Amino acid sequence: MNPQWKQWRLESLPILPDQWPLVVYERSKEQFEVVQKILLSPRVSRVVCATDAGREGELIFRYIYEAAKVKNPSAGFGSPH
Questions:
Q1: What distance in Å separates the CA atoms of residue 67 and residue 37, rounded to the nearest whole number?
Q2: Which residues contact 38 (CB under 8 A, 6 or more apart)?
Q3: How many CB atoms are closer than 10 A to CB 16?
Q4: I want to staple 57 with a disulfide (CB 3.0 to 4.6 A). Which of 40, 42, 48, 52 is the partner?
Q5: In sequence order, what are the residues at sequence separation of 6 or more whose Cβ sits closer than 8 angstroms to the Cβ of residue 36?
Q6: Consecutive sets of 10 residues in the chain, 81 residues long: mean pLDDT of each?
Q7: How close are the terminal C-alpha atoms of the chain, in Å?
Q8: What separation in angstroms does the CA of 73 have from each of 44, 45, 53, 69?
Q9: Exposed (0-12), middle (13-18) or buried (19+): which is 49, by Cβ within 10 Å?
Q10: pTM tops 0.70, yes or no
Q11: Could you write out the three-class secondary structure of the chain?
């Protein structure tokens, strides 16, 4: 992400990237492409995050949403409004 971070130095802390690179694993690429196609469909006007109550489920949803490059401004994250 940043060549300066290859060697750890105290003065480099905290190491906080502006953006975390998202990588779709080859073994799940086909399924990701199916989900991405649905998320990017012009027929989809809103996406609701309906994952489990734990933070991990929502984080996975947000990673998929970001990796799919969804730009729909009307997409919702679980809000009923």
A1: 12
A2: 44
A3: 6
A4: 52
A5: 67, 68, 69
A6: 83 85 93 95 86 84 90 54 40
A7: 38
A8: 12, 9, 24, 12
A9: middle
A10: no
A11: CCHHHCCCCHHHCCCCCCCCCCCCCHHHHHHHHHHHHHHHCCCCCCCCCCCCCCHHHHHHHHHHHHHCCCCCCCCCCCCCC
Which tokens sit at 39?
């998320």
pLDDT value of position 77? 53
The token pair that represents 27 in the structure block: 């073994």
d(CA 19, CA 5): 14
CA distance 44 to 74: 10
